[in-house]
């Protein structure tokens, strides 16, 4: 039997999602053992026949996942090259390009990425059309979910790298506008509030597997907690008192009480409490105002408490159009709302740097010691950053981690290195 047959693709997916995506899969021989030795050779004919079956069923987006591809990824690459020649109209995602350790999580991430590629292509084409209409001849970049930049061509191939880039941009922008590189960030929008932490000016990433639509994955995502509280959140001022999660969203200027509308919103509550001056009408008088403010503050405070990783006293940066609703202190921490905080998302995107991340399993033995292995992976990450148009003179190491893999034979280390650098501005 092919390796991995005991855990089939889509094994832990919700049925509704499988039905929506088709849930088609095929197993072929191949893969590696944990020490990098072959389980079996890849059979090109078997691979091509399996891909043709899927293609004939209407599947044009293919995800390839091989056992221990993070130890050796050459078989996935061989499969990619074989299928590209045999069936040129297929769009292929390799699991080694996305996820880290963990067959199930890495495979899931590759499947999600493959399913998003047609949408990513449409989005990029739309932006290119807009760019042409505006007669802009500059290169186009998108923001990644780690707070750095990615080229349009890479977005089409790896759209999952842009997941949750909105909150990431806001956190980067918050750090820049406030001048604080280590803080908690509360981004209050029209419908939701996102809470996260910045360390050294970059968002703290989730340290474990990340759930996307109830599917377990392992690609890098910011560690963000979200709640249904925003400036447009609908408020019930009668028992039982409640705020959100339903919101008027972009219709706030038409529906909020302070704009002569007929819907009580969180913005109305903030205005009535004297936290901000918005609108052209006197805020409503509410007997339950104090209790509603208490509910709103507790919603934010609870999420800030969850986002804290230690008892260290650090500031809270409030950003977003709805940050005017925030109190002066949250969970005992001072709240700072810097000037232009409503533009934090755009600022974060504008200041984004270019990154290079490499995750590799290295056998430390007589031929290479730990320090040399880390140096080797670091150089690989720097080369990747330069390939993505980072200025070599500005590249610095952001994070380095190494973890012994006790279940592998020998002294194997999983080494993760992230470097960042400024975007190289090309001039004529």
TrEMBL record:
InterPro entries the UniProt entry points to: ATPase_NBD, Hydant_A_N, Hydantoinase_A, Oxoprolinase-like
Pfam families, alphabetized: Hydant_A_N, Hydantoinase_A
Designated name of the protein: Uncharacterized protein
Residue ranges of domain Hydantoinase A/oxoprolinase in the record: 106-276
GO MF annotations, alphabetized: hydrolase activity
Residue span(s) of domain Hydantoinase/oxoprolinase N-terminal: 27-85
Native source species: marine metagenome
């Amino acid at each position: 039997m092919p390796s991995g047959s005991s855990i089939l693709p889509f094994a832990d997916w919700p049925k509704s999602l499988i039905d929506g995506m088709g849930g088609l899969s095929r197993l072929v021989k191949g893969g590696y053992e944990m020490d990098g030795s072959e389980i079996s050779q890849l059979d090109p004919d078997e691979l091509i026949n399996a891909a043709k079956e899927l293609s004939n069923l209407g599947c044009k987006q293919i995800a390839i996942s091989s056992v221990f591809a993070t130890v050796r990824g050459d078989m996935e690459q061989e499969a990619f090259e074989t299928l590209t020649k045999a069936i040129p109209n297929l769009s292929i995602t390799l699991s080694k390009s996305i996820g880290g350790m963990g067959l199930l999580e890495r495979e899931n991430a590759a499947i999600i990425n493959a399913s998003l590629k047609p949408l990513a292509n449409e989005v990029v084409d739309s932006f290119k059309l807009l760019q042409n209409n505006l007669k802009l001849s500059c290169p186009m970049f998108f923001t990644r979910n780690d707070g750095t930049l990615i080229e349009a061509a890479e977005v089409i191939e790896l759209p999952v790298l842009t997941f949750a880039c909105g909150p990431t941009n806001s956190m980067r922008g918050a750090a820049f506008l406030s001048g604080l590189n280590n803080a908690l960030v509360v981004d209050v929008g029209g419908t939701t509030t996102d809470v996260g932490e910045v360390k050294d000016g970059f968002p703290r990433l989730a340290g474990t597997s990340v759930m996307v639509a109830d599917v377990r994955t392992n690609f890098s995502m910011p560690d963000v907690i979200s709640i249904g509280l925003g400036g447009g959140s609908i408020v019930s001022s009668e028992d039982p008192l409640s705020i959100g999660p339903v919101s008027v969203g972009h219709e706030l200027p038409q529906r909020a009480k302070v704009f002569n509308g007929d819907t009580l919103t969180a913005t109305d509550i903030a205005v009535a409490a004297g936290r901000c001056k918005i609108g052209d009408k006197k805020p409503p008088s509410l007997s339950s105002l104090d209790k509603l403010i208490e509910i709103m503050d507790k919603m934010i405070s609870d999420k800030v408490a969850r986002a804290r990783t230690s008892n260290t006293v650090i500031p809270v940066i409030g950003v977003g159009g709805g940050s005017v609703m925030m109190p002066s202190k949250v969970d005992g921490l001072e709240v700072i709302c810097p000037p232009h905080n409503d533009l934090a998302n755009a600022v974060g995107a504008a200041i984004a740097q270019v990154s290079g991340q490499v995750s590799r399993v290295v056998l430390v033995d007589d031929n290479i010691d730990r320090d040399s292995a880390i140096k080797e992976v670091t150089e690989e990450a720097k080369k990747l950053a330069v390939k993505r148009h980072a200025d070599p003179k500005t590249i610095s190491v952001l994070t380095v981690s190494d973890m012994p893999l006790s279940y592998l034979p020998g002294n194997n280390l999983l080494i993760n290195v992230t470097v960042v650098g400024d975007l190289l501005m090309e001039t004529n």
